[in-house]
Structures are given as C-alpha cells and as structure tokens.
C-alpha cells in the first residue's frame, strides 16, 4: 500500500512539474545557442583586420636598421 501511494504522489508531482515547465517555457523566446549557418561568425577564416599580422608594415623592432 505504501508503494502505491508513493507512486501516485510521484506521478502527481511529475505532472505538476511538467505543467509548470511547459507554461513557463511558453513565455521564454527560443534563441538557439549554436546555429548551423551563422550570418556573422565570431572566428572567420579570412579576417579583414587581423590582430597579429604575420608581415607588419611598420615593425617596432626592425632587424636591419
């Protein structure tokens, strides 16, 4: 008998949690974190303005003065 009552209580708690989650998630907008085809990627393969260029135009310490 105790197992039956505990099983019923667990089922009721689960249904209450599911109902509250579904009602809350209805108001939250869905924004995917990792889209498959991003329009503006954070790390492009060919950046226009690299932070550390390989051949700088004005080096700070030239080898041949």
From TrEMBL:
Start and end residues of each stretch annotated as Disordered: 29-65
Its transmembrane ranges are 6-28
Keyword entries, A-Z? Membrane, Transmembrane, Transmembrane helix
Quote the protein name from its UniProt record: Uncharacterized protein
What organism does this protein naturally occur in? Acinetobacter baumannii
């Amino acid at each position: 008998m105790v197992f039956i009552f505990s099983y019923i209580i667990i089922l009721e708690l689960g249904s209450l949690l599911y109902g509250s989650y579904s009602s809350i998630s209805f108001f939250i907008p869905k924004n995917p974190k990792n889209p498959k085809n991003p329009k503006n990627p954070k790390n492009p393969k060919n950046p226009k303005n690299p932070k550390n260029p390989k051949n700088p135009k004005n080096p700070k310490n030239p080898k041949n003065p």
